[in-house]
Amino acid sequence: MDVESFLFEDKNYLSCLVEEFxxxxxxxxxxxxxxxxxxxxxxxxxxxxxxxxxxxxTLDTKEKLNSVLQSIDKESIVAFDTETTGLxxxxxxxxxxxxxxxxxxxxxxxxxxxxxxxxxxxxxEDALHALKELLTHNIVGQNLKFDFSLLYHHCAxxxxxxxxxxxIMAWLSNPGSKIGLDTLAKSYFKYEMKPxxxxxxxxxDFSTVSISDATFYAAEDxxxxxxxxxxxxxxxxxxxxxxxxxxxxxVEYPFMNVLMRMESLGIKINPEKLLELxxxxxxxxxxxxxxxxxxxxSEFNIKSTQQLGVVLFQQLGLKGxxxxxxxxxxxxxxx
Length: 335
What we know:
Strand order of the largest sheet: 1-4-3-2-5-6
Strand content: 5-15%
Number of strands: 8
Number of domains: 3
Oligomer: single chain
CATH class of the largest domain: Alpha Beta
Radius of gyration: 30 Å
CATH superfamily of the largest domain: Ribonuclease H-like superfamily/Ribonuclease H
Largest sheet: 6 strands, mixed
CATH topology of the largest domain: Nucleotidyltransferase, domain 5
Distance between the termini: 88 Å
Order of helices and strands: HHEHEEEHEHEHHHHHHHEEH
């Protein structure tokens, strides 16, 4: 056997693995894999952007809306989201709602858009009837407490037990992480959501957004929520966190309705007792202030750390303060 005939080819055998290294963010491996690459053999690897896409569909008539609702299986997972004129669910109004029950399509139902030349929309009465039917499915959402609170106050809908909430799931799986929809989309899918400020002009609310623009923005929220539910659930199962999924179902989700009822009813207080407490605290504060002035030998603004530093370290001669450009540091332990 002629051993010398067995020679390594003059090529970088790692070059074919660049995409895999990039996927797992193996920077050193990527660098080694690109060594020796020539423009003829292979161009430097450029990370590919996620190819996630979906069809955003406007349901602007009763007929279109009912047709889609009838196509949803009874046991389907349905991601749901609302668009409103503001964040106060007691005062603000619903402009429309979106829902998604598969990875390919997501729907938006316009109800309360107001601008010159506004296109066709679903009537409030038809929308309410559709909502009641839609909410009989397994509803998931991102911060459903907001959406349900809006429905309870304005649509007279009976309390609903959520099937799942991706915001709560994300928090349970990693309590120290950010759990906003945009952040989760980047974290799980490297997907950039359309920013709210690009859709709604400064000083306006969602009702002024064109229905075509609103459709993509709202449908995207529901679509991403639908994807996140499956992704977070799978991650929790693989991480042996199924007990937290049960806790969410038995504790967190039912407590949403308890919390919403508390917020709706408010907290009973005794105004006279609070006024009395305010008076007493004001008097105590006055006494303490007078004592401080007597001890320091002068009156000054107690709230000013700069003036307080002068009194402590210059007038009273206390030790331990370090003079800085803006005053003194190290006052807390001395006080």
